[in-house]
Design brief:
Mean pLDDT: 89
Structural class: mainly alpha
Low-confidence stretches: none
Strand content: under 5%
Largest sheet: none
CATH topology: Arp2/3 complex 21 kDa subunit ARPC3
Amino acid sequence: MTAMRSAALTVLVCFAIVAQTVIFRFISVDGVVPNLALILVVVAAIARGSQFAAVLGFGAGLLLDLAPPADHIAGRWALALVIVGYLAGRVRQDARTSPMMAVVLVGAASFIGTSLFALSGAVLGDGTWAIDETIRVIVISVLWDLMLAPFLVPLLLWLLDRVRPARLALG
């Protein structure tokens, strides 16, 4: 990947995280905002595969862990988004051919990613959420991501196709 393509992808990740932490906090539902970084990682998995999405998920997750107003142990979102990127990349062929499957994949990935984030918090003793509050946050997060997926998936697929490396011609 060229430096220009890497820079464009970095800008896209940073924009998603800034929008998630700054812009969407004004329209949050019970303090829960849509996970734009997760949607970007899932779309990257659809467009480029599991390896690319796992690396992107680690970077985006680490930035999300460090972005204010983060109040949790760093690395929890990085772990969740690495796993989400890898798993989404493994089922990408179905999602690439059908827009509805892509939305379903975003919903499943949102559930898995948010659940992994909550589970890692419980294992690390980070936070004192009750199980009913955890389930409520997971449901709201999945609904947010499902509401935005039909709009963001086609846009992000188009943008990721623009930063895709040129194919090498044979012969």
